[in-house]
């Protein structure tokens, strides 16, 4: 079961590292953003980036064990949103986030990539991405600009 | 994850009767696509008009379905909603698939 705390300019969602918990967390956040009059397109972009970071934590930091704790803090700021994500799983390999290169699609059908899109999507849509390992905790933070494009 | 198929001429239309293709259902989607197309017409059009959200796992599953079907079938897409279209464009997968505005555009005999 996810836990939710909201205040005037922020929402905190705590969930387990399970794909259906990630889904309900995203759904909760989308409802909150809808209530704050964000446009469908803006909500969709936020949902996409957050789906990628949350599923990465579930898949890699917690190695698909569905019982790891993930804390997501979203702050509504002047030109968009600021996100902080905390988990207690394994650190990022080499202590940093993957580079996220665009997948090569100019190949035969049988050689098309089926994965490796996540960090590229995050890199394209998130700003000021930072990752830090503090003790046994992973801290990821970034911003997304919404509204004026 | 529910897929519903119907044949129009030599085209099988597979309609995704779900609003999401995400990490929670990606594997299920791939298996369901195999079941829906096995032994059917060569041309397959995947109708995504009800899908409002796809993530990279979902995208991977659609690509996997194309690879799985390759040879016996060709997989085309129809009815991409804005977020889904954005994911295909960002990852350049919009260059890999034939993409139609909707099913009627993909299967003209339906429109008349």
What does this structure look like?
The complex is a heterodimer of chains A (149) and B (112). Chain A is 32% helix and 31% strand. Chain A has 149 residues and is an alpha+beta fold. A six-stranded antiparallel sheet of chain A has the order 1-2-3-4-6-5, with helices on one face. The longest helix of chain A is centred in the middle third of the chain and has 22 residues, at 40-61. The model of chain B has no long low-confidence stretch (mean pLDDT 95). Chain B has five helices and seven strands; from the N terminus they run βββαββαβαβαα. In chain B, the strands form two sheets. In chain B, strands 1-2-4-6-7 form a five-stranded mixed sheet. In chain B, strands 3-5 form a two-stranded parallel sheet. Helices cover 38% and strands 25% of the residues of chain B. Chain A binds chain B through residues 19-20, 22-23, 40-41, 44-45, 47-48, 51-52, 55, 58-59, 102-103, 105, 109-110, 112-115, 117-118, 120-121, 124-125, and chain B through 20, 22-24, 52-53, 55-57, 59-61, 63-64, 66-67, 70, 82-83, 86-87, 90-93, 95-96.
